[in-house]
Structures are given as C-alpha cells and as structure tokens.
Amino acid sequence: MDKDGLLGGKFYFKKLPNGLLDKTKVTCTICKAEFRYHRSNSSLCYHLRAKHPESTSTGPCQSTPQDYSARGRITKHLSEKLTNSLVVWIAKDCRSVSIVEDDGLREVIRVASGDVCYNLPSRGTIVSRLHTLYEDQRDQRSSKLVQVRNVALTGDRWTSVNNDNYLGVTAHFIDNDWTLQSFALTVSKTEERQCAEACADHFLSVANEWKIKDKLTTFGTDSARNMVAAARLLPFEHMPCTAHILQRTITVSLNDSEFERVLSKCRKVVGHFKQSPANAQELKEQQVAHGQKTEPLVRDVPTRWNSTLEMIKRIQRNKSVLTTILAQQNSMVTMLTDQEFDVLQKLEELLEPCRYVTELLGGKRYVSCSVVLPALCYLFRIMELSDDDPVYVLRFKKVFTTDLAQRRDSINLTWLKIATALDPRFKDLKCVSKDERREVWASLHDLVMAETHSHQPSAQTTEEPSPKKRKIAICLLGSSDSDSEEEEDSIDRCLDRYKAEPKIDIEECPLQWWLKREGAHARLAPIACKYLSTPATTVPCERLFSLSGHIIQKRSASLSSDDVNKIVCLNNWLSVKD
Question: Where is the BED-type domain (predicted)?
Fold first, then answer.
C-alpha cells in the first residue's frame, strides 16, 4: 500500500462522513468506479488491465492469474475436460449441483488455469452432463449383467426426513474372472404405501428394467414385516438379513437382563457431557491432562446395538477422567461403582464377538453367504454356559442362544448350507450336524444332475434322426438304465474329488481357489458361482442410503427424484473400483 493510496495512487479508500477511512471500499481515480477491498489487489489489477491498460506500466501490482501461466484463455477442449471433471466430482463426492454458482470455486479455477475470464458451466449444463454420464455408466453395468448367468439382489425401503419413501436395490454377482461385483441399480422415490404388494411390484419393475428377472437367484431384505411379505410374493429365494437377525437377538437379550440398569446409569453420565458444552470442554481438558486421547462420549441408539458397545468402551477408557470431573463438580450424576464397571466389562466380552461377526458378514467385496453358519456356530460356542459366569451373564447367554436358535431356523438354511459346502474354507461342514451334512451333499448331487441336464440339447432342438440312426437308438434303449447309473457314479466321483481337496485357510479367498480349479471341478463351478454370490446381509443397500443421505434429505428440493436417483447411483458406481 502506498502513502497516497493503492497501486501507486490509482485507487483510494472511501472517506466516511465522520472523516475516517472505510478500509473495505476503494475508488478508482480514473473512472471513479467503486470496489470492495479484502486486502488483496488482484481484482484491482484486473480492473486496470481490462479498463485502463495504458496505466498498468507503472506501479507495483500484486500477482495476478496471468502470472501463474501463459496469458491465453482456456481452450475449448480443456474447458470440456474441466466440465466433465466437475460432473464426476459432483457425482462421486455427492456435491450439490449449485456449487457451480460458487464464486470461490470459479476463482480457484481461474488462478489454477491462468484464465481470468473463465466462467463455470451453468447448473443446466451440469445436470445435462450428469444424465449423459449416468447413461454411459449404466450401459457399462448393463453389459456386465448380460455376461453373467446369476444375479442376487438386496432391497430396502427408507423414509427421508421429509417423509418421502425411497426404494433401494443393489445387484451382486460373480463375473467370469471369479470376482465378486456389487453395485446399485436404483434409489428411487415411490409414492405408494409400503405394503407388501407394492414393494414386490417395485422390485419386479427394477428387475425388468435391467432385464435380469430370469437371472435372479436370491432376494435379500431386512426383517420388516412388509419386506418379508413382499419377498414371499416374488419368485426368488428369500435371504433374510443376518445382521438384522443378530440385532434383534441382542436387543431382546439386553432388555431381558440385569445389564439394562447399568446401561441406564451410563446414559445419564453420557447425557451430562453431551448436553452441556462446558462439560464437554472440561472432558477434553481432563483427557489431555491425563494423557489420554481426546474423544467425546457416545450415547447408544436402540436400533444399533453396536452403539451400546461403543458407549461402554468409551466410558471404561475414560473411567479416571469421568470420576475426577464428577467429583470436582459435586454433580447429581453419580459415577459407576467398581462393581458396575465389572458388569460393563462382562458385557463388552459378550458383545465384542457379535461385533466381529456383524462386520465380517457386512462386506460387499468378498464372499459372505458361506460364512453365516460358521459365524453363528462361533457365537453359540461363545455363549455356552460356564460355572464361572455370574447369574446375570448366565441369564443373558440363555436368552441369547434361545432367541438366536429360533431365528436361525427361520432363515434360508438350505441355501446357506450349500453355499457353505461350496466354500473351500468350510466344506467339511463342521458347523452342522452329521445328518445335515449328508443331506447337503445329497442336495448338491441333485443340483449337479440338474445342471448337467440343463446343458443337454432338448428334444425340440435336435435334428430328426435318419431311419438308420433311429433303428440303432431303439436297439440301445435297453442300456438307458446303465447310462443313468454311470451318470450317478460320475457325479459321485465329481463330489468325492471336491471333498478330497484340502481345506484352505480362513483368510484365503474362496473365489481365487475356484478360479484356479474351475477346470478340475467344471460341473461344480457354475453352482458355486451361483450360491457364493449371494450377500449375507442388506448392509450394502443400507450403506447406499447412508452414503448419499444428505443428497436425498437436504438437496432433493432443488432436484427432481430422477436426478437424485442418477446422482446417488453415480456416487455408488464411481466409488466402486472395477
């Protein structure tokens, strides 16, 4: 800044009626134009170069966009590239379309490119490009679905804060390279009531729209009554969400135990710090003073049992901090006793295996359906009664195992058993009884037989045999029984070869095992591809809502429901690494 003004006296601050200078506004001495001043001369230099080029030869000037690169403008090709990059960014990171009206973003691109005349594309252009990008990405996914024989679906209904109903559907399949693929098909707004018939019709319409109805194997839903009823109306195998089953079992077990009294006391302690900014700040200060990680306390949510586990973990980690603060404040909120902390420790030991199983079954990039029965077997083993257990732990374990056993019988056990047998990690089927193992291998025998017959040419497609061939066929009719016996023996040998293969480690990928041995087990491979592609939970579909909820909840007012569907699907598609 010069003594006489800015940029060699070419601009001066506006003088207020009281004689003081307004340091937020400046006036051009040449054309008397008034500008806002934010301690930067960039816009003032731009004004001089654009309106008064003859005056720019003297006086220092702050670095302008021209200083960062050549003085030329962005080419049409580069402008197209920038627009397409903006569209991908908006879709991939769920940004608002209105961000292209942000002056700050425009200035960033101007500085980065060196083109001070660059203007962002309009909202209409962005929305149009989003539609084009959606169609391109959709065609890519449609071509993938065309190449596979079997597709599994998960579906869920969701109500936004605006009380709008949305239907989400995801597809899951194993491609020709034995890679598990998973992506969204739709997140569309629905106007009808969420009755079973309407839900079933919507799911069928999505399947028909993507032309995969004849390829569908299973349909996964949560335990909501309308979703279960809708699944019964559909001509596909129903796969209940194992995570929801486990959620309900834990909720029942907690409500019918002595843990609830201690948990209620924990919630009061958490509320004391969550509802007061001063108390929250004091918690941070005490955590620093005790050399602990600064973290807020967490209050549990009834529909998320893992939040209960996180709440008791954080209270236990901050035991000394919380005790110190509550003692200093003489608060009406009482701290947990040592005996109550022992109860929390017992509860953590009970819930931690459940957390492990839930996370194990909730993945979408690896096989999960075949892990359900071994995982449930693991939980039953963890919940076995022990003489050292306190009475309240014994009660929790009894309620847990009884409830889980009842819910286990209501899931699609036939599908899960076959999937487990076709996973080289668990093909010994130790998670089921010996009688059940025989039934599983008998079912697999029938599936191989059906698969063999499905690939044989039908009588309608074969050519009419010549009289000579017909005579030979009649003579050989008597050998049909022996042929059938040979086929039975062939299938038995096929299954025996597979059962003789050594098990692989639990950390290894079963799909990679099948990729290497597809030729050796050619008759079993298509069945494995079908059964192992089914997800164990509807978490991928729920995660779809979670990742894109802020678009649906906050920005759908400025976008049509079709635009919301396209952006949410693009977010899912562009985030998935092929």
Answer: 12-53
The arithmetic mean of pLDDT across residues 343-356, rounded, is 94
Place of tokens 């949560």: 222
State yes or no: pLDDT of 405 exceeds 60: yes
Distance CA(9)–CA(336), nearest Å, equals 71
The token pair at 218 is 């299973």
Whole-number pLDDT of residue 352:
95
- CATH number of the 152-242+538-575 domain: 3.30.420
Reported as half-sphere exposure (CB side, CA atoms, 13 A), residue 396 has a value of 23
Long-range Cβ pairs for the range 318-326 (8 Å, 24+): 318/283, 318/287, 318/292, 320/290, 321/283, 321/286, 321/287, 321/290, 321/292, 322/269, 322/283, 324/286, 324/290, 325/279, 325/282, 325/283, 325/286, 326/269, 326/272
Query: Count of H helices and E strands in the chain?
Result: 22, 8
Instruction: Please tell me which residue, 363 or 406, carries the higher pLDDT value.
Output: 406
Report the interhelical angle of 372-382 vs 413-421 (nearest 10°). 100
For residue 466, what pLDDT is reported?
55
Alpha-carbon distance of 46 to 222, in angstroms, equals 60
Q: Which amino acid is at 475?
A: C
Structural domain boundaries in the chain: 11-55, 152-242+538-575, 247-409
Task: Say which residues have a Cβ less than 8 Å from residue 8's Cβ, sequence separation at least 6.
Answer: 2, 58, 59, 60
d(CA 410, CA 245): 10
Question: How far is it, in rounded angstroms, from Cα 318 to Cα 325?
Answer: 11
- Tell me the Ramachandran region of residue 326: left when phi exceeds 0, alpha when psi lies from -120 to 50, beta otherwise: alpha
